[in-house]
Every structure is written in C-alpha cells, then in structure tokens.
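User: Good morning. I'm curious how FE2/S2 (inorganic) cluster would be positioned relative to this chain. Could you predict the structure with it bound?
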Amino acid sequence: MSIEDLYSEIVLEHYKEPHNVGEIQSPEIFAKGFNESCGDDIKIFARVKDNKIEDIKFLGKGCAISQSSASMMTDLLKGKSINEVKEFIKAFNKKITGEENFPEDSDEWFELSALKGVIKFPIRVKCASLAWHTLAQGIRDYENKLIRRNNEQL
Ligand code: FES
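Assistant: Good morning! Here's the predicted structure, ligand included:
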C-alpha cells in the first residue's frame, strides 16, 4: 500500500466513524464555525478542568476532510492544557498551509499528516482548518470571559 493510499484510508476511517461526535452540556468552551466557501458548519464543545481540556466534542456537517480533521483534532487535544492546545493549533495552521512541514517521525502528527494532500488547494485547506479555527475562536472567547470575570472581582 502506498503512503497516499494509507493517508486516504485514515481520512475515510475518521469520516465514516468520526470520534468525539456529540454535545457537552454547559461547556466552558463553545464555538460555531462556518466555511463560507461551501456553507458547511461545525460546533465545538469543550469541558475545561484545572486549565486542561478534560473533554471535547463536535457536531457538524461537511466533507470527509473537514469531518476527519475534527475527529483527529478532538482525539489529539483531549487532556492537553489550554496553552498546549493553543500552540498545537498554531503549529497545525502552519503545517496545513505549507509554511512548515509535517514532522515525519512523530506519532502525534502521523494521522494529521494524512491531511497534507490539501496543501496545494486553498479551498480544501479551509475544510481541513474549519474545526481548528473554530476551536481557536472558542478559546479566545473563553479567555476573554475569564478576564472579564477577574476584572469584575477586582
Ligand atoms: Fe464544506 Fe469541506 S466542502 S467543509
């Protein structure tokens, strides 16, 4: 099996049986994202405990790339601290836009590497990035809420 076939298989497996699909009630992090080039959307929910992503789920509709990317993202980010998640999102954005290479010897990045075929197609990059941009927005909203709450208590 060629590496391209393996990558297609990884994407299709996540598309057919996506991980972490669903809602979290009263999530600390919530955001809705929308891909204006196709009309597909996604909602991301995350439970934060001790500054870590204790649980993360998504709901949405979209192409195989967007759904598999959301499935892999939620698998990988569960258990990371908010700062680690922010760094991971930045690193993913650099890789999926071709600014940096996907590491070849990293277990953590192996499945995500299956998405690298989209790099040459800006429209498809939007599909792969939808969940990641949406989560980044949710984290910004969450952090702003914390700042406002802290300011009110001063
Ligand atoms: Fe809509 Fe990919 S075509 S998210």
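The pocket of FE2/S2 (inorganic) cluster is lined by residues 35, 38, 40, 62-63, 65-66, 127, 130 (CB under 6 Å). The chain has a mean pLDDT of 95.
Let me know if you'd like a different ligand tried.
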